[in-house]
Fold each of these.
Amino acid sequence: MTAFISRAELLASGFTPAEIRGHLATGAWTSVARGRYVTKPGGAHGSVGERHAVRTHAELSRFRSEAIVASHRSAAVLHGLPLLGPKPGLVEVTRDGVNGSRTSSSVQVRASKVPPEDRVRIDGTAVTSVARTLVDLARHDEPLQAIAAADRALATERVTGSEVAAAMARLGSAPGLPAARRVLQRADGRAHSVGETRQRIVLEDGGITGLAFQIEIRDDHGGFIGRTDAGLVELGILIEFDGKEKYTKYLRPGERMSDAVLREKKREDALRALGWMVLRFDWSDLRRPDDVVQRVGQEIEHRQEARLPRGSVMAADPVRITF
């Protein structure tokens, strides 16, 4: 985490108010919250998520009350959970209690019960636990955002379904819980990116049944060919989400993007040689969900009489949240 320093600490160390203003005016220092500054060169120029994390720590340091915790999207950033779309502009916090909700130019404060079991500390800052963060996202954010965050948390064993259920139970009859239950029940821990989660939701909402996920495919001799995002195994159809992360996250030492693209093509050629049909969708496709469902439906019809692919498969089991 990029460190910040308070105005009081700077004054105590000998800086004058004029010197502080001068450093801010030249851009050498950056204000990340009222009276909180990043003074290291480049410290305020990390990724959007990294900058929001610094702002969250800085804003929370201004609250003297132990009743305040980072929550919602800000907590998701600190926990390393994926966010859909741009990172939050406002730092989101929750005040333990029933009163005190407000929004300023930099912070959104919600009032809600936050028992000790739903609190953790990250780099000294009080934050809602992963389980409570998922519940809050499901209560107040877009359903896809909550499902994608839950998928990641479940897949990486950052949380269990029973922990999420317990966090929700501790909220009693708080507003938004019935809808939150319905949302979180759709998470299953078998998506490795927001795009994969979105693809699964599109297919399920479109009535595509019998889907398997994180499918490991081997050839006739047991040799590993690859792992695919989703598919209809009994029909020999594989469905891949083609996000940029697929070609950047798993680059090998010394590889360029073009090397990863070529490796992916060879993998797909090997899958087709075994008899698999491979469908690929990207974000532009998922913005037209009806077209995606129609294309998969057409392939289902075409594959009814097709021979099953050679080799063997093994799919991941779901990890669900039940209430």
Amino acid sequence: MVRQRAGKKLARMPAEQTGGDVEILRGDLVRVLYEATMDETEYVFGDSITALEETADGVNVTFEHAAPRSFDLVIGADGLHSRVRSLAFGPERSYVKHLGLHCAIFTTPNYLALDHSGLVYGEPKRIVVYSARENTEARVLLYFASPPLSYDRVDGDRQRGIVHEAFAGARWETPRLLELMATAPDLYFDSVSTIKMDSWSRGRIALLGDAGYCPSSLSGVGTGLAVVGAYVLAGELATAGGDHATAFARYESAMRSYVDGCQKLADSASMMVPANRFLAGLMRLNMRMMPLMPWLRDLPAKMARRAASAITLPQYPTVG
């Protein structure tokens, strides 16, 4: 359901129109992956990498808290603001492409009584609320246009303050949602950005997922892209007979066009958050016309499905 500034219904869109996919909540996916690997994988929590030194046969890693260690390879899968990428490839500004938006995502009680459905509220800013966990919770996504912002990424209070300032005066359920954000257990706030690099590896260090090729939170394919990348990278390492250079090259060859297609989704998706009231008016007109133009109505879903399925996964031997 799409609503206008005063909350009046503007249009209704079926789930199939925006992709019709089945979504797995991030926390659930993390738990599944952790439980499947915890017996065979060493996990270290509450620490971070501060230095990398590559040698002829490995990488010496310095940690913020733990003692230094050496590893055969280092794979940076540490997100949009990757520390591994900064240490091995250079500063973030060399690779990040800001799409002119910021977003806040958090969980609230389902006080709007959404029944396996969602609401989109469109001003020049955009609010999306959809039900989750069998309607017991709701996910809130707040998007607003902004140049790159400077703030402490671990300062939740400052991040909430930025969101409050951006949505000050917004109508509909905005004041209530901002109030609930204060007690949300899982606030995520960041720029809407992509990461574009000419190469995802350097020596014995490689990048995976958002660290190497973030398609932005608007693309809707970031998690899938990271999981596919992990599968391909692991498979190539397993079949390369210890030749990491060959494995990294094959990984990039298999993934490059797929990544490019997924990142193009972000370029088009950013237009869904209009930067001013004129563009917001055009967006409302577009929403009204969609039911009358099936080809336009189905276009977002077709684009998403085409990008998400534009790779044939190689078959690798089982390793274990």
Amino acid sequence: MYIIYNVLLLLATIFLSPYMLFKLATVPKYRGGISQKLGRVRKGVLKVLGGTRPIWVHAVSVGEVMAAHPLIRELKKKYPGRKLILSTVTVTGNSTAKRRVPEADAVFYFPFDYPWIVRRVIQKINPDIVLVTETELWPNFFRELQRQGIPSALINGRISPGSYGKYLRFKRFFTEVFKSVTLFCMQSDEDAARIRDIGAAPDRVLVTGNLKFDQKISTAQQRPVAIAAGRRVITAGSTHRGEEAILLEIYSRLRKKYPDLVLI
């Protein structure tokens, strides 16, 4: 099954390479950390580690970084002498990790899931354990961790109803992939049941809740928003660059019809 996965991965790379090269040339964010994604481990990361075996936490983007932050904070409290490193996939996730997660001793980009790339990165970093957030199920990465005797855990794991059916279609493959994962820490009973159905061994599945509920909320954030009763409210959450301008334009138009409208 891994042979089929890697052949498909290689074919997809060949087929999409013109598009990917165009994006790399024209969109700066696609160039972020490309050498690291291709297997280069920065000297700064290796210097920080100093030959020690770190705790490696992986969070794909901003939401996962913020969800993992409470756990990272607690790990550093419990193991103050241990190095802890944090990897991301996106540029925004990387910059957020550097700004918002001071407990991380190093922040870097996660490697592409090609066997030779993940093997090189794992050998260079030599982690003591790897904790991967939510549903970042990279087959070659987990397989290589197992080959090198490194335990791994899926933390804050979730399987949405939509993705559940897709995973089931490839149950045979994911059953094989899940053999390489040491522990599955799922958000809910439903998530735990779904990942067991897909092929995870029941004795490796735990329900640990949602890490996002463990985030520290500042005093300012806890204060109630002073909005008069009966006023209409629009809440914009998890917006991306450029979307705020669109929202403000829509809001200004709606205010003409609904003068009491509030945008948060």
Amino acid sequence: MANTLRTLLSKVTRPAKPRPPRQIPVPRRTRHLEYSPNLDGDADPGEIVWTWVPYEDDPAQGKDRPVLVVGRNGYRLLGLMLSSQADRDGQRNWIALGPGGWDREARPSWIRLDRVLQVDERGIRREGAILDQLLFDRVAAKLRADYGWR
């Protein structure tokens, strides 16, 4: 009798085998481009601002970088990071911007298209410059053609 009771209790108290998470397909979030710069102290689409950007391989570390604001996602800004490293020239997912007012040393810059940063407006350290609309349009055309932006 004790063995029967133990067997029944073990079936009742044994944890159920966890089910794998249910996968529900959802449409990819479409990102909308916007160009509306206004050097008013707030970060706006079309402006290059400086903010903290975490390293991809170690998000606990990073550095202040120039970032082109290309749109918004609610209260967050959508941005693309810039680099002054000349080896970016000709690399996939990078476009040359040339020098601009965002870099005090007037070094040429490249913008990375395949890593979108969501930046809290309070994390903006300073406004750098307004990106020329022709350059912004070139970046926007590439984002629309290759990355599904609108």
